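Before the break, one more example. Copy the sequence into your notebook; we will annotate it together after we see the structure.
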Amino acid sequence: MVATALVACGVILIMALNQLWFFVAALFILFAFAGKYGFGNIYYNINGNILDITFGFHQQITIDILTIRKIKKISSRLNVNSAALSADRIEVFYNKVDSIMLSPEDQTTFVAHLKQINPQICTEITAIQ
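Here is what the structure looks like once it is written out:
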């Protein structure tokens, strides 16, 4: 009787460990996928008058550069409305009330390119005017 109970406990333990390894492996694959395709990649593409921002699990925002009103430098760590991984960000105001935080590698060149397309863009930072 005791031997049967020990065997049953051993079988249950082995089954639980097998399920745990399966769960750990599934989590590992999920995080590897999310790191490669989800959280770590942000692309900024300027094509004509259009700024395409691709981030997350293939989320995309398209902004007409001619609707950009203002760009300002921010250093907030809050991730609200953000397609930016860095704490060193710029906030782009477009349309009448929309804005998004971005973190291009070379902010000066990025803003200069936008201002070349739309010279009406106001910047509040002398370093990127």
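Helices lie at 2-39, 107-117. Residues 43-128 form a domain with the OB fold (Dihydrolipoamide Acetyltransferase, E2P) fold (CATH 2.40.50). Try to locate both features in your own notes.
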